[in-house]
Design goal:
Butyryl-Coa Dehydrogenase, subunit A, domain 1, FAD, flavoprotein, Butyryl-CoA Dehydrogenase, subunit A, domain 3, acyl-CoA dehydrogenase activity, AcylCo_DH/oxidase_C, four-stranded antiparallel beta sheet, oxidoreductase, Butyryl-CoA Dehydrogenase, subunit A, domain 2, 3 domains
């Protein structure tokens, strides 16, 4: 059954998580260096048990975690989500040896994971990826050759879930997922200077050796590993966006109630009040669609791909609208470095691109509609 409201226990947990994020995680985030992994912050997420919950929680609980963290500390939310994205293929498709080696380290916040799918010429069209896995005659392994780009947590992660082409010309059916530790010979990387404050980089594979025991899932079935991961996390990307929208809305309510102009508070101007009402309505609509998609995932509903795409599409586009409107209503102060809205304005843009751009979500939705 779709979730249209939270019960008192869920509401209390969300409030507690927001308070924890503000009191404990926000100070660690403020000490971090933009563009680099904030390992003390990741360690704190592990100590609080939040990373471990990524692999035990249902999709709805994951969304509530991400939304709550995003309202108080977007850096903590992103660090948590990236651990989940990079390590979920290990938890879902890895061998017992993979899980024993890496999951305790990830959940404790000692090991940093990364999801290495995108390439210079294969972003939204993930089936077109060109990183080669060239077979070697001895041992039944492969050598990885090529480049990954726009990889969150690269090049500072401790291991990567890497998707490579094992069968040329086979499209999505010729891709294999590998677990690649960062210390493998031939693997190097460099950071990219991006608008978003979290680390993003490129990875170069110069004959990096991988073996059958490094395969996640099955050979040539790696695209399924990727899509399973993205379907789980897409609704929660929407939750991240909803959290940012709510933070911007809360800031706008406080500002327009206290700021005086033209003889009274801004909130008494009809143009302002109507704008705030629109922001609140769109935020709530996005939240409900995210919750419904998460509930469908937890129930194993057949229309999860469509619902997940709808949730990510509406929530990320809504967050962009709400944050932009909040900046407009705050005026120039919102663009001052260090202001909450200046931070959100930089953060809110990327979710409309990563884990499937807005246009890709529309394509998925249309495909599912015409197939029904």
């Amino acid at each position: 059954m779709p979730v249209f409201s939270l019960d008192p226990e869920q509401t209390a947990r969300c409030a507690e998580l927001r308070a924890t994020a503000a009191e404990r995680l926000r100070p660690l985030a403020d000490k971090g260096e933009p563009g680099h992994v904030n390992r003390p912050l990741v360690a704190a997420l592990g100590e609080l048990g939040l990373i471990g919950r990524l692999f035990d929680a249902g999709a709805l609980d994951l969304c509530l975690m991400r939304e709550s963290l995003a309202q108080a500390c977007t850096e903590a939310e992103t660090a948590l989500a990236l651990q989940g994205l990079g390590a979920h293929p290990v938890a879902a498709s890895g061998t017992a040896a993979h899980r024993a080696r890496w999951l305790p380290e990830v959940t404790a916040g000692r090991a940093v994971a990364a999801f290495a799918l995108s390439e210079p010429d294969a972003g939204s069209d993930a089936a077109a990826l060109a990183l080669e896995a060239v077979p070697v005659s001895e041992g039944g392994g492969w050598r990885l050759a090529g480049e990954k780009r726009w990889i969150s947590n690269a090049p500072e992660a401790d291991f990567y879930t890497v998707f490579a082409r094992t069968t040329p010309g086979a499209g999505a059916r010729g891709v294999t997922a590998f677990l690649v530790p960062a210390d493998r010979p031939g693997l190097t990387g460099s950071p990219l200077d991006m608008l978003s404050p979290h680390p993003i980089g490129s990875l170069l594979f110069d004959g990096v050796p991988v073996w059958p025991e490094d395969v996640l899932g099955e050979v040539d079935r790696g695209f399924r590993v990727a899509m399973t991961t993205l379907n789980r996390f897409r609704p929660s990307v929407g939750a991240f966006a909803v959290g940012m929208a709510q933070a911007a809305l809360d800031a706008t309510l406080a500002h327009t109630a206290g700021r005086r102009a033209f003889g009274g508070p801004l909130k008494d101007l009809q143009a302002v009040a109507h704008q705030v009402a629109e922001m609140a309505t769109r935020t709530e609509a996005a939240r409900l669609l995210v919750y419904a998609a998460a509930a469908a995932y937890d129930e194993g509903a057949p229309d999860v791909p469509q619902r997940a795409a709808m949730a990510k599409l509406l929530a990320t586009e809504t967050a962009q609208y709400v944050v932009d409107a909040a900046v407009q209503l705050h005026g120039a102060r919102a663009l001052q470095r260090g202001h909450l809205l200046e931070h959100l304005y930089r953060e809110v843009r990327a979710p409309r691109i990563y884990e499937g751009a807005t246009e890709v979500q529309r394509t998925i939705i249309a495909k599912e509609l015409y197939a029904s």
